[in-house]
Amino acid sequence: xxxxxxxxVGIGNSxxxxxxxxxxxxxxxxxxxPEDLQTVTHLIIPGVGHMSSLMSTLQFTGxxxxxxxFAQHHYLLGICLGFQLLFDFSEEGSVPCLGLLPGRxxxxxTHAQFSTNVGYRTIFPNGPASPSTPLAPFYFTHSFFVxxxxxxxHISLISHxxxxxxxxTNGSNIFGYQFHPExxxxxxxxxxxxxxxLK
Amino acid sequence: xxxxxxxxLSLVIQSDLAYxxxxxxxxxxxxxxxxxxxxxxxxxxxxxxxxxxxxRSNPERIPNIVRSLRLTADFPLSFxxxxxxxLDIDNFFHSGADRLFFPAKRTLSNTxxxxxxxxxxxxxxxxxxxxxYKFGSRRIVPLLEPTRNVELHAFTDLFNSSLISDILLTxxxxxxxxxxxxxxxxxxxxxxxCPNPLLLSGGLGxxxxxxxxxxxxxxxxxxxxxxxxxxxxxxxxxxxxxxLPFLSNRYQ
Amino acid sequence: MxxxxxxxxxxxxxxxxxxxxxxxxxxxxxxxxxxxxxxNRHTITDIVxxxxxxxxxxxxxxxxGLSGGVDSSWLLHLLVQHGLRPYVLHxxxxxxxxxxxxxxxxxxxxxxxxxxxxxxxxxxxxxxQVAYFYSGVLNQDMPQxxxxxxxxxxxxxxxxxxxxxxxxxNTTESILPSAWSHHWHDIANLQGIYxxxxxxxxxxxxxxxxxxxxxxxxxxxxLLSYDCLPLLDLIPYxxxxxxxxLQSKYNYEPYEHKHGESSWTLYYQSVYxxxxxxxxxxxxxxxxxxxxGEMTRESALQILSKPTLPRPALLKLCSLVxxxxxxxLDVALNPNRYILPVSHKCFxxxxxxxxxxxxxxxxxxxxxxxxxxxxxxxxxxxx
Lengths: 199, 252, 383
Fold this sequence. Notes:
The complex is a heterotrimer.
Chain A: E1 4-7, H1 14-23, E2 28-31, H2 34-37, E3 42-45, H3 51-61, H4 63-73, E4 75-79, H5 81-85, E5 89-90, E6 95-96, E7 104-107, H6 108-112, E8 117-125, E9 135-142, E10 144-145, E11 152-159, E12 162-169, E13 174-177, H7 185-196
Parallel strand pairs in A: 1-2, 1-3, 3-4, 4-13, 5-7
Antiparallel strand pairs in A: 5-6, 7-10, 8-9, 8-11, 11-12, 12-13
Chain B: E1 6-14, E2 17-20, E3 28-31, H1 33-42, E4 47-53, H2 62-72, E5 77-80, H3 86-94, E6 99-103, H4 104-109, H5 112-121, E7 126-131, H6 132-136, H7 152-160, E8 167-170, H8 183-188, E9 198-201, H9 208-218, E10 222-227, E11 232-233, E12 242-243
Chain C: H1 27-38, H2 44-52, E1 62-65, H3 70-81, E2 86-92, H4 98-111, E3 115-119, H5 122-135, H6 142-159, E4 163-166, H7 170-173, H8 187-198, H9 210-218, E5 227-230, H10 231-234, H11 239-250, H12 263-277, H13 282-291, H14 297-305, H15 311-325, H16 329-333, H17 351-360, H18 367-382
Parallel strand pairs in C: 1-2, 1-4, 2-3, 4-5
């Protein structure tokens, strides 16, 4: 039976995810410890936070190891900071992350000459002929980014020459969005609905 | 380039009731903030900035109102006002805030709060609000020259630091000019090279489209406009409120 | 046992007072039939002429409440189209939906009328509604109805506007079992329920004095400075045509559900009433449409076989109610699990006095004395 878990360790805006799940009529569990993780089939890791704070909290609770194990056989969705957490390393605090997707999280200020990408941006499927058909704008707010990798399914262009990974997946059970689907109105809610309906 | 300028709606909340303020009027009571945010969700508003007032005497009520607003809105919510301690910062973010705006002048004398906020919640979650009228007008305190009240270099450092993202310039139409925003001051100030997104506010709601394009021409990092009047159009009658059909500008 | 249902309309024995006749009709469809045949007594031109002929101080010749629903929107259109200058009043009780807001705004802009909006003290309204909710009484719309009417009379008293135009229309809403409603004029009940829950007296709620309410109800002319005109009952009114016209001329956004302009009324009729009282008010509305010939009985039965709201809309609505009133989501979703139906008479109520006045007033030889006695008795009850 599907049970949706929302990571809630004091870093990350879990309530905005909870609001979306409530509107979708979906029951959920708060995951605050490794024990909670045993009882869920899907885990959503919310955004809004500093990577070093999140990683140190996960290490302190033992959740970093448990989430890596969880990700071998269950569904995982990372949003914004949660998306960046899936990769190998983040320049935000220079910390290693979960390493579930290959790639590094880089600083916008260093690579883009501006500090934060904030606002609604269209995204494009990542392919040889990109940018092709744009999709409805989603809300981005981040100071660090992941350059597109093999796992990137969609990109967003935040300056003339800088594509960023907007979404990524390992092709089976791990998914991530750099933007906030739960803050992107009804079209963002469809993405969350798609995730919670995965079996 | 993939740029959609933001239209941030601002709403004042006092005693759990919503008010709208414009330049020359007393705050006008507009009802239950939860219902207003529910309507704004259906209108697909870009984002909302909530100005909390009057909660300093009972800050324990803040998590409840923030949480209620968060569970109603499916768009980003920023907050400002009544953020005095690290506990306040935690309360806001744990209750669902996406971003907090800190007043620039007070932050200058005490950066501990924004350092705490940034190191726990990330740079993109911390904004600064600067009163353009006080700091932008040559008649008052020019950004070009340091005075005994303003440490310009300290502001420059703050604006360019990795501690903040959004810079919200307030009262831009009170810069002393009659012709709208005094872009020259903006161009010549330390904000011209600042790497952070700029939001402008202060009487801009009535001139939305023209302002958006003018600002975008003038500043490469112009991010959008904050306004209370472009969603709630106020008639002269003091108790009148007509909601404009409001569409976020990304669909234009 | 399944309640028996009328063969002509779709009212059934969830109204405990219904009589099902052997010819297949019932008390309700017979009652509604009278309104269908007795409508169309006046033309709009006659009414407008009547309004114009009354002198008035100030720029407004009548007052029209605007909720954003089809009836009040159509009313406003008619009044302005025929050259009248209505004072347009909207009372924001805190439950407006986005289509209501959009419709009110579009309509006023297109018609070039100034909208006057009064916004209730939400903190007080919320407390009153929480008290009503947990009391389990039938009429959960009372606080809003009293507030709306009070605001209209308040303006009339301040501006001396001679006509109050109401949107009541018996041709589309005549079917309403007495067991499905409680007089919203019962101010004593408002005070009683609030006091019971919050253990303190109700203060600051904008209800007018009872005398004016009672005078309005029985049209006691001696105390009324205005005439009340239920315009939609006096002229031909086809709601479907009206909606179609509003959509094409004013970009009017139709509501997905009846009473979609107020989230509370939608919740009350779609969730609270069916759950706590087993009453589905769609029966009354659809029965009216059947009697008017606007719908077949088969279509009505098909509608009734589906839930009052589809699940996503139900969840969104209950989440909103839960957050606004500060009650748990589960309680908002399933009120019958936590709330028992309780009669208004279990709290302070003047219903028996109201019923008494309604039956005695019009046949009384000394209406002033009858009215005075009633008000004195009612106010004694309130104190």
